[in-house]
Amino acid sequence: MGTRFNEQVVLITGASSGVGKAVALRVAGEGAAVVLGARGKDAGEQVAAEIRATGGQALFVPTDVTVEQDVARLTQAALSEYGRLDAAFNNAGAVHAFGPIEEIEEPGWRADLELNLTSVYYGLRHQIPALVASGGGAILNNASNLGVVGMGSVAPYVAAKHGVVGLTRAAALEAADKGIRVNALVSGAVDTPAFRNTMGATPEGVATIAALHPLGRISTPEEIASFCAYLLSREASFVTGAALAVDGGFTAR
Fold first, then answer.
1. 3-state DSSP call for residue 8?
2. 230 in catalytic set
């Protein structure tokens, strides 16, 4: 086990697969006790069991991040189980509504905002007091590359992720004097089950998205996790209020 996160407690949402799982494995491997939240109970428990099997500490709490009571319960679980909270990664998100704006019905619009933006507000609302009580810490919100650039056919998701960047900056200013850093992750496409499902799991679909990245490929979850681990750690002690890209050059165009 590593030492960068020893005696620290890290909360992660959307932790049952993909980037969330990769971050959980990474920080747990560096000594963190991890508190995992996700809708999928079986998959989430499996991630926690995998961490414990290698000597790490992990607790899974079934969590629907669109329900504030669930987010509050997840945060409280960290305090009850480990006595503190040092960092949080608000990672849960997905696209619900596809198509031209004029064809997207209100339920799809609301679903994308609730999952991708309101959930982050819920996280900040409960994580900031917990971090204050623990003496400060770090929060990382997953804004994706569509938090800083536009794309057609997924306008509600784009709007939500742009909102995450703005919310991150406001929270960073509010929390700076409390010893809390708040940053936004601007990630490119990542090779996860959710990504491949969205692209229809076709080589052509994946290749089309890969071509949008100047490096000519999409990232692995582990590549994203290494960057997240840095931002969540005390090594990034002077980084706050930033929207930081790990996107293969996608947003450099």
1. coil
2. no
Here the tokens at position 91 are 């990672």
Strand 243-246 to strand 180-187: parallel, antiparallel, or no bridges (unpaired)? parallel
Residue 2's SS3 state is: coil
Structure tokens at 173: 């200013």
Q: What is the pLDDT of residues 185-227, one digit of tens each?
A: 999 999 988 787 765 557 788 888 899 999 999 999 999 999 9
Q: Which two tokens stand for residue 27?
A: 């920080």
Q: What are the backbone angles phi and psi of residue 205, rounded to the nearest 5°?
A: -65, -45
Dist CA 215 CA 188 (whole Å): 11
Binning the chain into helix, strand and coil, the percentages to the nearest 5 are 50, 15, 30
| Phi and psi based region of residue 89 (left: phi greater than 0; alpha: psi -120 to 50; beta: remaining) | beta
Euclidean distance between CA atoms 29 and 138, whole angstroms: 18
Lowest mean pLDDT among 8-17, 87-96, 189-198: 189-198
* 3-state class (DSSP) for residue 38: strand
Using pLDDT thresholds of 50, 70 and 90, give the confidence band for residue 235.
very high
Q: How many CB atoms lie within 10 A of CB 132?
A: 15
pTM above 0.90, yes or no: yes
Topology classification of domain 9-247: Rossmann fold (3.40.50)
**Annotated catalytic residue within 82, 121, 122, 157:** 157
- Token code pair at residue 235: 């090594």
d(CA 187, CA 243): 10
Strand ranges (E), the chain = 9-13, 33-38, 57-62, 87-90, 137-142, 180-187, 243-246
CA dihedral (28, 34, 40, 45) positive or negative: positive
